[in-house]
Amino acid sequence: MVQAQSSTELLSYPNREFMLIGGKDGVGKSSSAVSIAWWVQQLKPDATVNVIDSENKFKSALRSFGSDRPTNIQYYKVGNMNEVTGVVAGVMEGHAPGDWLIIESMVKIEAIVPRCRAQPSNILDTGVAYE
To answer: pTM score, two decimals?
Structure first.
């Protein structure tokens, strides 16, 4: 049975497991990701927020925060699924309690995934088909 959380419980660090922010272009998903990084920095200054982005959208949102922008971000611009899996593996290896991983945008990667299943050796250096 899923237990509901109050606002207080939800905002109590580190009571979080998974956060999904969705919506059409221009509704503020990237700004929300920057806000999450800022919030994490306020609560746990030594925590790192790792951001994976396939479309380079995160940088403009970060710039929009000006001098208030968080400084706890490690940004990874990825161009293919091999880079995504490599970054995730590295982040997981170096993960410390309180660190976060934000997947900013995977639209370009999502577009090649169906081809990965059909022709994995042509798309991925590892030859692994992602389901």
So the answer is: 0.70
